[in-house]
Queue: 2 jobs
Job 1
Amino acid sequence: MAVDGRVETIGHFSGGSWRDLNGDRDLLVTNPATGAVLARVRLADAVAVDRVVQDAAGAFPAWRRTPPVVRARSLFRLKELLERRADDLARVITREHGKTLDDARGEMRRAIENVETAAGIPTLMMGYGLEDGAGAGIDEELVRQPLGVFAAICPFNFPLMVPFWFWPYAVACGNTYVVKPSEQVPMSIARMADLVHEAGFPPGVFNVVNGDRVASDALIDHPLVRGISFVGSTAVARYIYARGAERGKRVQAQGGAKNAIVVMPDADISRTIENVLGSAFGAAGQRCLANSLLIAVGGVADRLMPPLRDAARAIVVGNGEDAGVGMGPVISPRARDRIVGYIERGEQEGAQLTVDGRDVPAARPGSCFVGPTIFEGVRPEMAIAQDEIFGPVLSVVRVESLAEAIDVIAASPYGNAASIFTESGAAAREFRYRVPTGNVGINIGVAAPMAYFPFSGARASFFGTLHGQGQDAVDFFTEKKVVITRWFGTAEAARHHGF
Ligand code: NAD
């Protein structure tokens, strides 16, 4: 990274060092809480992407020959560095993204857990075999092999964690890697690249190319890139999946979401409220697992809503770096305008606006702030019940039964996550059995799978078969080679040597 005046310029981390491969397009990165300019980021064109991919491809043969246990040691060293620098990195996340420091620390923890899990690669990557598997004296075995260069195209909402769903597993398996962060939040992954270098990964094993859709397309189209992991909105996920498949690539593409939280009449009200608040308004509603639709069953809304409204109004909105702040800004003034547009639309659709996020002191037009917002009397067909708003807007729908609640969820094209709050095992089991989402929470507000489970998702929230994290990631990043072996001399050798 170069520092120009007081604003640093972030180029591309390629072949073990920072390089300013092209300078014709760049973008200013700003702190959404203060509007301060934090950095200038270079936006790669296809030529710059090619240089980075070539560096990654050049590092592949030697890295592939490095034994898995030795590759794992680099991850152990990185884990130690990440632990030591976790707080500094969390501050960078908060500055470029806006989420509170506590939230950013949680994001760091999730990233580190993926390094810990991927460090088990000697076990995770094992194949299997069967003596006499293909007939008497003919053995059969399966080995997993890395494929070459993989790349991730990442969203803005988890600047550091999302790349960690993929890259530690990819390089642990012996591949080399290119991360393209969101052009809105390039800083935390840039700091992390320096730590990867410090941890002793050979140059070219881990690379970062900064850019926008031009860089995404160049990565997908590059003949040396064997597979793409994408996380972002559904429209782009669908496009990347199709474009990658057309070029014969492996693609896993995670898309957008509209997650629902079902509250049954027997739910523990105070714990439910705590979880609904965290889920709907944490990170200002900019989580792919945020529950932005509350489906209240039977009469539970009459007991749930008054304290929920009060608690939402009590959330302090401000700079995520300041103590006592419960919710930071959204990512940009443009995002705020989109969210405010949805608030206006909800009013026009006839929903009842019981908590108005435009009323909080920080929520001035032109800023990135909008406070917790609650709509009640929402009907499932309204846009505020159907669209991913990706902001702190909770829509409350009332239904009579669990079956009706599941029908509302099933009618959505998305399938990322759903939660139920209940004290009934039977209701919870029915929900788990029938709900068509990839991640399910039972008395859990944010059903985020741990690193050793796949980060699931279904329908319009996921395109592909193998997910990020854990064993799924190892399957995605390796080729399964099946070897059948027969030694013709076996019988004679046995007679000769007496075995
Ligand atoms: P986005 O789709 O706008 O951008 C994601 C990435 O794609 C960025 O790196 C961007 O540069 C690139 N990109 C954007 N438009 C492109 C195009 N037309 N062609 C090629 N590349 C393009 O998403 P975002 O606003 O950064 O992130 C928010 C979205 O991500 C939300 O929809 C959220 O639900 C989703 N998300 C999903 C998950 C999940 O696990 N399913 C996790 C996190 C975020």
Note: Residues 121 and 172 are 6 Å apart (CA to CA).
Job 2
Amino acid sequence: MRGREINEAVIRRGLTTLELLRAGASFRLSLRREWDEGVDFAGYARDFSVDQVPCADPIALGDEEARGVLAEAAPALGRLESLMRAGGHEMVVLRAHAGLGVRAWLHVHSSVLGRNNGYHAIRAGGIRRHEPGEREEAVLVDGLNLGRAMSFKNAAAEIPFGGCKMTVQSAPVALAPPDEPRLGFLAYCIDAGHFMTGPDMGFSPQLADVLRARFTRNILGGSRGALGPTGAPTALGCFLAIQEVARWKWGSADLGGRHAAVQGLGAVGLPLARHLVEAGMRLTVADTDPARIAAAQSELGAMEVVSPDRILSIPCDLLSPCAIGGVLDEASIDALRCEMIYGSANNQLRAFSEEEEKRLAERIAARGIVYQPDWTHNTAGVMAGFEEYAHPDDASLERILPRLERVCRDGTRSLLEEAARTGRTPTAIAYERVRERLRIP
Ligand code: NAI
């Protein structure tokens, strides 16, 4: 029996909120009605705060009753529980607003690093938009994988937040004029999740500007923020890692005359391509959006362009995935013809658990290709976000630069050296290094 999607079942019952909390091997489900359908979320943070949302008829159902109410979605719920068990996730929360057509899922992997950190937010990660018609399970898989990576990325970046991601199924949110009810509702979901976030795919830095100016201080990475969009620092961190791999593998950080294949020329891919060209590399690129390629060519000069399905398997020195996640599975790994894989894309391996990641990393290593988890070097965006959060009046890139160099450059060197010494993959070592801090057995 396929059953209903979870969000449909929640909405059909006139409920707004689902919380699924994992404690060891067991789960605790609760369902709630937390606001009236007619509440004007345009007034959020001005007329009412996160715990004052008008609700004439609140409802809270405990585990047994909630499971009864959600019986029609039991298969989907069972699948969600097994994904959370495999990934080691702590909690998933859905806030669904039927009238606004917004379903916001908070995918919390671990809150350990954020406990008692002195801020409103105790976990951090991006907010990503999915189209309303996408299958719920695909949205959940994406969010759970990204949330899991955030625990490790925050630990690697040395910032005091647990790992979490928010996925939002919604039509694009208008900014001119601003769609205040939807923006206010998103801000409420962010605040209610004790979550510090920044725009990921499907949400723009301009949207972060509007949210931050009017609705919530728990979003960073806007174009008007003190440090600007996070793409540029993220690209710098990736570039430092690439130079370090070159030094380790080829005996020199000089990339002149080498060949890079870059997948995606967006907020990170373009500034990274800029670094690579300035370092003397020849580029082959792919992007699903021809306008991005045209912009890169007009700024950086001639470059070879291939179709998105070819970029992963062209012969090159560096493959740099800077678009979607999940690009490295068994088939694509076997087809690789590069010497190293370093790019910004989150969750480059198509895996749902640490064990699966380690297995794919072994396969990459067996091909003689240097690879380490993306979360060890695409960390500068989250560092910049935390810098703006912690120092709203005098955020500075100079302050994060030493940490960026230590984590992305020195951290890469140390992972590669230990891998060479022990015969294990950098992936296995990277996980081992942060596991204790995250109290993962
Ligand atoms: P973006 O949305 O600005 O750029 C992505 C680019 O990839 C776009 O130009 C898009 O057209 C292209 N693209 C999409 N699918 C593609 C495909 N199948 N083949 C080739 N190109 C494709 O996103 P952004 O911010 O540059 O992020 C890129 C990756 O880096 C994402 O995985 C993101 O989660 C990750 N990341 C981004 C950070 C940031 O600060 N922006 C920080 C850390 C990770």
Note: The chain has a mean pLDDT of 96.
